[in-house]
Amino acid sequence: MLLPKRRNASRAMLTGGHFMSMQSSSHPALSSADQLAANTSDFLLLVGRILLGWIFVRSGYGKIFDIAAYGATFPARGLPPFLAYIAVPAEFFGGIALILGLATRYVVLVMVVFMLVATFSSHRYWDFTNVAVRRAQDSSFHKNMAMLGGFLFLFVSGAGRFSLDGWLRRRN
User: Fold this and answer.
1) Whole-number Cα distances in Å, 136 to 34, 109, 125, 139, 145
2) Which pLDDT tens digits describe the chain residue by residue (172 residues)?
3) Cα(43)–Cα(50) distance, rounded to whole angstroms?
4) Which of 1, 56, 105, 163 lies at a 20 to 30 A Cα distance from 132?
5) Is the model's pTM score more than 0.85?
6) Concatenated DSSP letters for the chain?
């Protein structure tokens, strides 16, 4: 069965040989921001990548010069210490790759695994009875969940034109 075409239902853009769908708002009265989103998407993807990547660069930088000491904290979280030698470089260099927009979808997959392990091993707020500690862990847990949402958006959208991925795509 053929459905009637909706005006402004969706637009397709062909960028560097890749198909990307730009969804319009659900109702014409809500579509005023659609053009703004279309006109600023690459810049906003850059800003989003910088903001998302920076938290990992900042956090990983403090650990990368003494991975063994950081790994010593893993058994209390139920993790073997050797995982620190995977987690810390993934955190630090993954953050740099996100900022640069290099191999973005692959880096996002690594970062999702990193975030899931970190969230469910280090921010188990339900295990704490001290109200202040529980509140801090609850906040960190839900912050990580929100960042996972950002990763999902980045996985779907890609890094955008202002990225090394975009530059490499244009070179080919």
Assistant:
1) 37, 27, 8, 5, 14
2) 444 444 443 444 444 444 445 677 778 888 888 888 889 999 999 999 999 999 999 999 999 999 999 999 999 999 999 999 999 999 999 999 999 999 999 999 999 999 999 999 999 888 888 999 999 999 999 999 999 999 999 999 999 999 999 999 999 8
3) 11
4) 56
5) no
6) -PPPPPTTSEEEEEETTEEEEEEPPSSGGG-HHHHHHHHHHHHHHHHHHHHHHHHHHHHHHHHHT-HHHHHTTSGGGT--GGGHHHHHHHHHHHHHHHHHTSSHHHHHHHHHHHHHHHHHHH--GGG--SHHHHHHHHHHHHHHHHHHHHHHHHHHH-S-SSSHHHHHHHH-
CA-CA distance, 110 to 92, in Å (whole number)? Answer: 12
Strands 18-23 and 10-15: antiparallel
Pairwise CA distance, residues 74 & 87, whole Å: 11
Q: What is the 3-state secondary structure (H, E, C) of 32-51?
A: HHHHHHHHHHHHHHHHHHHH
Please give the Cα distance from 99 to 112 (Å, whole number): 16
